[in-house]
Structure formats: C-alpha cells, structure tokens
Amino acid sequence: MDETSRPDSIITPTQQDTASLNEGAIEWFYDVAIDPLRMETLIDEWERSMAQLRNNADFFAPDLLSDRKIMGHFERAKSILAKVERDSPVDQIELVLSPFKSVSAFVLDAGLKIQAANDTATVDLALENINSVRDLPLESADIESLLRSIRRLFENDREDTAILSCRPTHGQQIMVFRLQLFHTLDGQPMVLLAANGITWPNGLSSTLTKVFGLTPAETDVLRSLVRSGSINDIAIARGRSVDTIRGQIKSLMAKTETRSQVELVRLTMSIMGVSGVPAEHDEASQNIHRGYATLEDRAFQTVVLPDGRRVDYLLLGDPKGRPILYLSAGLGLIRWPARAEAEAANRGMRVIVPLRPGYGGSDPVADDVDYTTALVSDAVHILDAEKVEMCPILSIADDSFFAFEIARTHPKRVRAMIATVSSLPMTSTKQFERMHKWHRFMYTGAKYTPHLLPFMARSASYMTQKIGKRRLLQLVFGQCSGDVAAFENAEVFEALSSGSEVMMSESRAAHTAVARQFVSRKKDDWSSSVDAVRGKLPVIFMNGTEDQQVPMETLAEFQTAQPWIDWRIFEGSGNLLFFQRWRDVLDAIEPYTGNDFP
C-alpha cells in the first residue's frame, strides 16, 4: 500500500495523546518486574491504555511511547526485573524438582500427599486432579509396592533411596521410579519420586553386544524398553509389526536369561550402574536433544560459519532421506510428535531443523547485524552442509515471513512452500485488533513499540519459568478447543515442551532473540517478498478456522489479496494445527520432496 492510499483519519499521535497513557499501565510494568505472574493483568491494563493510541497512530510509520519520560520508566522496570531474576528466593521443594526438566518428578509429604510436581509429571501421570499416591494411574499391585517403599523411607533412618518399576494402567510400558528421602529446612521429611529418568550411556550398546551377543536391532528395542516404550510404540517408531517386536523381546530375554520385561529392564539398569536418576545434562550430552517419553534422542549437528559463529540444527525423520527445510517458529518448536517423526522416517523424509541465532547452542548475532539476514544466511549454510541444492520449506506460524525471504533471496534453493497457521503482511490496524489479547500484546508491541519489546519478552519468559509451559499454553491457546485438545495429548505436549527448551528453560531464555525476530517480522511491510515469489513456485497455506492470530475475517482478506496461494482451511483447528494435522501437512509437502514434482 503506498503513501497516497493511507486513510485520512490516520494521524500521528500528539504529545498529549502519549501523555494520556493510563498511568496504571506504567505502574503495572513495575509490578510485573517484581512479580511476572501478574503479566496477564498487565496485558488487560495495557490494552485498555494502548488501543486508542494505536487507532490514532500512523500505521505505516508508528512511533508510540518513545518519549524520554516513558522510556525512563521502562529502563527502571527492566533493572528491577533483572534484579528479581538474580535475587529471587527459590522455594526448597521447587529447587529439589528443578534438575528434572524432562522426566516426571513430584514430591510427597509424610501423609503421602503430593505437595508439588513438575509439568512432565502433571501430564504423564495425570496429576492435575490427584492428591494421593493411591490415585496414580498405576496397576494396583504396583501402587502397593510403591507405598511400601515410600513408608519404608519415612520410617527407616538407615535407608534414604529406593528404586522399583511400575506399570501404568493405560498401557504396557514400564516406568522406573527412583525415590529419594530429604528434609526441608524446618525438618519436615519429604520423598522425591522421579520416573523414566534413565539415559543411555555412550558405549552401552557395544557392551551389551559383547556380553550377550545382541544384534543392533535388539539393542535398539532394549533401549526403547528401558525408556519405557510400549511394544506398540516401539513398533510404530521402528516401522515394524508388533509381532516382530515381541519376537525380538523374547530373543532378548533368552540371551540375557531373564524371565520378564521388568527383569530385563532391571538387568540393563544394573549394567548401566544406575544408583539414582542421572543428571539430565552432563557435559558429554550437551549436544543431544532429549525427549522424556516417546521422543527419541537426537544429536545436534553444528556448522561453523565463515565469521566464526556456531549454528546448530537437528535432523528428524530419515537422516539420508529427501530433504525438507523446517522453520520452527519463535517458540523454537524443533520437535514433532513421536508418531509424526516416525512417519517422516517411513516416508523417507529428512527434516532439517535450524536453531535460529541465540537459541540453544546457536550463537547470537551482533546488535548491528540484521536478524532476518542472519537467519536466512544460517539456513542456506545448513543446506550447504547437508549437500542440499533445492528442497521445499515447511514453516509454522510467523516463520512464513522467513520462508518468503529465503525464497526471495535464494530462489534456486526453494522448490515449494508449505506454511501452517501462518500469516501474510498485516496491512491495517484492524488486523492486529482482531487477534487474541496474548498475540496482540506481542505483535502490536513489535509494530508500534519495538523499543519496549525486549522487556515484554523478558517478562513473558520469566513468567513462564514460574507458571510452567502447560499453564502458558492454557493462557495463550485456551480459547480454542482444538488447541486445548492438542496440548492435552501427552505426545503433543512432549513435542511442544521439550522442543521449546532451546528457546526457554530454567537455564536458558532467548528473550533477546525473540524480541529481535518479532520486530524484524512486524515493523516493516514485507509484501515485496510475497510478490517476488508469486507465480515462481507452489505456495500452500494451511490455516484453521479457530486461529487466534489470523481469525477468519483476516484470513478472508489475505485470500482476497493473494488468490494465487493454495489456501487449505481446517475446521476447528487453531494455532497448533500442525501438531494435530501433521499427516495432512506431510501429504501436502510430499509431492515436492522428490526430483519429479508438479
């Protein structure tokens, strides 16, 4: 849209407009700096104050809240937040749970009541409505064994640890529980329970092969059993029949002279030298991305760029298969549901997943380097490292912007674009105002007040560390029943939670990188990138009717503006469409993965 097409009603806000900003909103930023759990209240207060300013702003050159007085408020709030992050006292039980990020862990008091649990336990063991060990979703005999072990720890001063295996009621998979007695500062005894916390040490496979004569396939099946994979899950992940997996397990028991799967797992654990749940990230495993239930471990690959900066990436699916470049959005959703990753492997797809600058082990870019340029360059260097000349791009959410940029600047590298729950350039204030408040808060921040966005992103990151990712998903996506159904699926939640660790975890917060990419996408009109691709390669957009960032009215405007795009709309799906409809997505992209394509 050019200068002459701007509505006459759009004016630049006066100093009086800016000064009229509700002082309560500024006070809320101070409150959030002290207690980020108040973030949602801030958003409501901020929206009441900012809506009129946005309506009166020049959409094409917005400049809101940049005066010295307001900036001073934010600088002081930022300093407060930094101090809170450094000095905030940590609850002792929370500290005990903190090492267990990707295994189920919870704490019991002497009355056998659950006092606290991490997100993983809440999902995998359905703890949200459970207060007692007796209500855990385990076989009744195993619950009695677990209770006996717990009571023994509380009653016997000579024992402070125990380990036993249990079987959930919802399947055949084995869960290994490690129990640890500890005392709070006021002397109260507590027991920590951690499940599935077994890692597979380097060299264990070769040891098992030498000692028992296991085949590589049997070793892989045993590894899945130790990590609590059910026979059905193992069969799906390996692309084999259930009968084949049962036969391999029988062979394992014969070679190891064990009489049951439980005994087989216990024997393997004893060989591993497991005396407790190992630390989740030791130095030797820093470059491994680990799931905590059904996802297989994946090693990060690394490319060192000409300027010396390090860029990491993952390979999902078949590491020698037909390439797909996958752009994982600002949340860093680098993992797919286990069945989706297995299906990609079965279809012979090699999914290349770059970690954007400042995420995980990828080095950040300097302040004077354009973030978009760096991200595009990183993706191309990774394709070079994988010896990929041309491939389709699969993107989720706003990463359609980066997909268009790659296609515009490197047209010979892109075969097709498949964008899920994605957006086109926003061309009116109304398109921002239609968003759900959480999306609107960040996206209008990037558009109208980019200088304040780093503080907003930092506050959101710190809040998430406090409330957990599951609660964040409820806040941001809870208005869409399709999204709720998605993240309440344990397999999907594992992909969302563990994948986003590269962006946000207790030890990492990429809020600076998040703010920079938000600004790069929303500050300027990027319609020229879309126009550069028109008619030159296939572009498919897959959106849901319940998308809270791009609701149907905005989607209709996009369809009218860009009718050449292949629009595919899914009833009842929201922002987590990809994690629900991944089969449809793989069906859409598969024709463009081979040498012969439409």
Automatic annotation (TrEMBL):
Signal peptide: none
Chain ranges of the HTH luxR-type domain: 211-268
Organism: Sulfitobacter porphyrae
Entry protein name: Helix-turn-helix transcriptional regulator
SUPFAM superfamilies in UniProt: alpha/beta-Hydrolases, C-terminal effector domain of the bipartite response regulators
Family annotation (InterPro entries): AB_hydrolase, AB_hydrolase_fold, Sig_transdc_resp-reg_C-effctor, Tscrpt_reg_LuxR_C, WH-like_DNA-bd_sf
Domain of life: Bacteria
